[in-house]
């Protein structure tokens, strides 16, 4: 089973930046499609960004486009999420997710599409 461990969360003021990391176990990272999800209290888990195994195709939720950047370093088995211009609405637990299957269209944004999950890292944005 793939093991995912997130890090980089914390408490920041609105307008600040964070870089989240997701370290993956094993040698299969390079063939995994990856995504970042977030879940705020009382809300459903939502996909904010996804990236194809090759890194050449990315997806962003409209609410974060222009502020979030997803990337990966397959030599380090690590997924990243650069978050700029943080807003209080970004406060949530951020989860790393992975799947081996090829995803099409809206499937990229569905939590049910992903087989492997980290435990999450808390991002709190103050006003």
Structure report:
The protein has 127 residues and is mainly β. The chain is built from no helices and 11 strands. Strands 2, 4, 5, 6, 9, 10 and 11 form a 7-stranded mixed β-sheet that branches. A 4-stranded antiparallel β-sheet has the order 1-3-8-7, with no helix packed on it. β5 (46-51) and β6 form a beta hairpin.
In percent terms, what proportion of residues is strand?
over 45%
Number of strands: 11
Helix content: under 10%
- Rg over C-alpha atoms, rounded to the nearest angstrom: 13 Å
Oligomer: single chain
Cα end-to-end separation: 40 Å
How many helices? The count is 0
Low-confidence residue ranges: none
Q: Averaged pLDDT, please?
A: 95
What best-fitting shape do the alpha-carbon axes yield? globular
Structural class: mainly beta
Short description:
By secondary structure, this protein is mostly beta strands. Helix content is 0%, strand content 46%.
